[in-house]
Amino acid sequence: MTLQTLTQTPEAPEAGAARSLFTVRDLRLSFPDLARKPLLGPAPRTEVLKGLSFDIPAGQITGIVGESGSGKSTAGRVLVRLLGPDSGSVLYDGQDIGHLDEAALRPLRRDLQMIFQDPMSSLNPRHKVWRIIAQPLKRYGLGGTKADAIAALGKVGLPPAFAERYPHELSGGQRQRVGIARAIALKPRFILADEIVSGLDVSSQAQVLLLLKQLAREMGLTIAFISHDLSVIRHLCDRVIVLNRGEIVEQGPVAQVFRAPVSEVTRTLLAAIPLPELDAGWLD
Amino acid sequence: MADITAAAPRRRARRLNLRLWLPLLWLGTVALAALFAPLVAPHDPLMQDLMLERLPPSFMAGSEPGYWLGTDSLGRDVLSRMIHGARIALFVSVIAAATTCLFGSALGLVAGFFGGWWDRVISRLVDIWMAFPPVLFAVLLVAVMGTGLTSVIAAIALIDWTRFARVIRAETMVQARMDYVDSARIGGARRLATLISEILPNVLPSIIALLMLEMGIAVIVEAILSFVNLSISSDDPTWGSMIAEGRNAIHFAWWVLLFPLIALFLTVLSFSTLGEGLKQRFDPVLQ
User: Fold this and answer.
1) Which residues of A touch B178 (CB under 8 A)?
2) Which family, according to UniProt (chain A) (predicted)?
3) Can you list the domains of chain A with their CATH numbers?
4) Which of B242, B237, B235 is nearest to B260 (CA)?
5) Closest to B198 (Cβ–Cβ): which among A112, A124, A165?
């Protein structure tokens, strides 16, 4: 199977009535800018997210797209509460998780998983693959044996022998599959996928995306898929949110945004999709 | 789906790692000699015989059979004294370095991982501690606590924990920024569990390398304190006190000074090389 099958999958029905898993209203977040810190007193703060409001419908794949520095990863990390917002509400399943402390979040974390951009640094180099996958299971009392890890590996298309490997013994695509296996092993409701294919070559990208799409459908997952590449978003996502400098410039169903982009930023990103330009003698 | 074969990963062919085995060979010899000192030593290290004073080593003219490395100014066998001296050297190095390592690494891990007030308090303490001149500090401590092995070990641990705290703090801060720490959090790990089961294994090679270095340093510090007669009673043979005694007779019996010095040098060198060798051997990423 290739990318071809991805493009041919029918567009998900426009679910106007889809229940929202996340409801985010007026989300603001700033970081202290230590480069401009005066000798005395606190550093001035740089606003990274300037009042975002969006919904993430349950059971769909929502793309979050933008140039680097647009705040897309930061927004994603607020959803899984690796970061806390300055103000605004982050309703997960009706509960505001924006200001919960770590102890209160821990039971929720099982349902809020994440796949990281760099699978090398997100897999502990000193743990074997099976331990990386099994440890969260053990923490939540969902088993955590080597057999559980091997079952999860099977779901992402890796043979059992990989359980005994260390992360540096895998290729980039295989590492990212392990990252996916770790996330889905917990049977979560939501997965944040943060630029998960940007470090992979094109054929691994297609395989990993296809796998994610299959798993999402089988398990009824809600996914927020962060990318700077609109062509990837188009193949994978049902809805898309376009960010620019910490603000939402456009959001809606993928088909609509691609057909009739309203903002300049979206048009620029669309124009940046590389198209094959083949003419006779291009190899010369 | 693309076929993913489970071919065994490539491993670098094992070459004999000299950095690992040469130090182990020497330290193993010293350790065996120290453990079985009464059996191995050819003579009583304390037995004086003025008829046999300043005998040269066996490869020189005028030597006496059975006294391979010669005798000192009181007619005591140098080899036997060195073998008994190894006991004290190794005992001090193992106990003092382990204490220093435990104490300093724990503080470094906590400061590097929890940051905030933990880091501020521990780092300031390290800064203040390091402003004391170490030799003066050691001499003062031993003078206050009285001579003896306990004081020597306490002096080493109290002075050198800062080395571990600083290096391990920096290393922990680097590791704490890695994504696997965030992913442990996503996987529901508590902070302390993350520190112990995720970060510690990655900092361990540095801890081991430092521990080996510290064992070498402990041998030197013990020798220095013996040299100035602040270690243990001058009856017990130590390498430091042998060097001190040999210094007086260096013009007519250089071997009394030279052989313990070589043992000291080789032991310290072995410890620091072993640290590097172990790091190479047990790092899955470097292999």
Assistant:
1) 121-122
2) Belongs to the ABC transporter superfamily.
3) 54-124+189-270 (3.40.50.300)
4) B242
5) A124
